[in-house]
Amino acid sequence: MTARPVVRVASGQGFWGDWLEAPRRQVEGGPVDYLMLDYLAEVTMSILQKQKERDPAMGYARDFVGAIESVLDSIVERGVRVVANAGGVNPTACADAILALANARGVRGRLRLGVVTGDDLLPHLDALLAGGHSLANMDTGAPLADVRDRVLSANAYIGSTPIVEALGREADIVITGRSTDTALTMAPLRHEFGWSASDWDRLAAGIVAGHIIECGAQCSGGNCLIDWQNVPDLANVGYPIVEGHADGSFEIVKHPGTGGWITVPSVKEQLVYEMGDPHAYITPDVIADFTTIRLEQTGDDRVRVFGVRGRPPTDSLKVSIAYRAGFKAVGTLVYAWPDAIAKAQLADRVLRERLDNLGLRFETILTEFLGVSATHGPLAGDGRDAPEVQLRVGVRSEDRRMVERFTREIAPLVLNGPPSVTGFAGGRPKVEEIVAYWPALIDKRVVKTSVEILS
């Protein structure tokens, strides 16, 4: 248990592809104890699995290596510790890349890595199904056996316990696969303050802290709906920091002199993001009751969070499964004023008639008119005065050849369709494999995590 009254956990990435400057700015901008880097979304796991199929040394978030390079001196000299789910579907390869970086910088002997594995269920999928774990789709009830031959990845959402173990074994950097986003923040607080695995209220507070900062600057001025025109200095936005206390209360802050803002409304916006049932925010560690959360503005860019209540978790873990679901292609054409929408609508009718004449029958064909109705549908009006409209047509099918034929039918509209095409955006559409999402539950007892310490 720490003797520090406050533990500072800084968010440095909210997804794979977030601002590359954020990790360094968080570590150099003021005192922090931990840097939390969240890289994974459901679709990210399938992308990483496809990369690993092509190259066994891949399958992790490669941006992470650059992030660590930018803060390596602070990790080694100042003792800033890092927790990240950058391991994706290949945490060991991710750790190898970090050790290679440390070796090149001459600090390998001064760096301890904790590698958490066990979330990847793909190698055990057939045994699990044979053992009676149906991994039924949470939305449809269908058994996974229906798509087993097309499964690309299967990862259980693990909680904070193995991360806490790695920190307890003095890891400077902890790399996980598919942990929950919230566990990356909760684990340092749980480790530092010695919260037990049944301290439901404090664990729930840690989960809420993690939820608030898991998306990076989304709670500090980025993607802000309320008064968005007046968010200060957004180009210099400060990422959020949790200042945690042993009693479970905490403050959300950012470094002085950075842009954006930390306000009760900005924190509330993030709290309702992907919340689900406010009475039961379910994680592997605890169920947090979001209706008990209390917020208080205690200073400029400082919001106190307190009163969080929790209760025991369920006996299941969520599993994120991705499977191959056919092929798609999306093509676009831009039509200019006058009568832009009418031209785009005619082009759509012509394209559909030609596809029908060719006997091409797709599972789905979807048309959107960007600039008129793609976002708001009929609420946007008829669009007759739109100065320009982008026609976007997408198709999907199990038959790749059929989708390829579609890609050759949209380009001719430039010359043999309605007038005033101003851009054939992106050229001929590409055929892409569709990766679909299959959410499931599994008994916690069959998921075995492990922690390895490397140096």
Layout: helices, strands, pairs:
Elements: E1 7-13, H1 22-28, E2 34-37, H2 42-54, H3 63-78, E3 81-84, H4 91-104, E4 113-117, H5 125-130, E5 151-156, H6 161-168, E6 173-175, H7 183-193, H8 200-213, E7 241-244, E8 250-253, H9 264-271, E9 281-282, E10 287-289, E11 294-299, E12 302-306, E13 309-311, E14 316-336, H10 340-357, E15 364-370, E16 388-397, H11 400-407, H12 413-416, E17 421-423, E18 432-443, E19 450-454
Parallel strand pairs: 1-2, 2-3, 3-6, 4-6
Antiparallel strand pairs: 1-7, 4-19, 5-14, 7-8, 8-12, 9-10, 10-13, 11-12, 14-16, 14-17, 14-18, 15-16
Helix pairs in contact: 1-3, 3-4, 6-7, 7-8
Number of domains: 2
Averaged pLDDT: 94
What is the quaternary state of this protein? single chain
Radius of gyration over alpha carbons? 25 Å
- Poorly predicted ranges: none
Question: How would you sum up this structure, described in words?
Answer:
With 455 residues, the protein is of the alpha+beta class. It has 12 helices and 19 strands. It has helices at residues 22-28, 42-54, 63-78, 91-104, 125-130, 161-168, 183-193, 200-213, 264-271, 340-357, 400-407, 413-416; strands at residues 7-13, 34-37, 81-84, 113-117, 151-156, 173-175, 241-244, 250-253, 281-282, 287-289, 294-299, 302-306, 309-311, 316-336, 364-370, 388-397, 421-423, 432-443, 450-454. Helix 6 (161-168) packs across helix 7 and helix 7 packs across helix 8 (200-213).
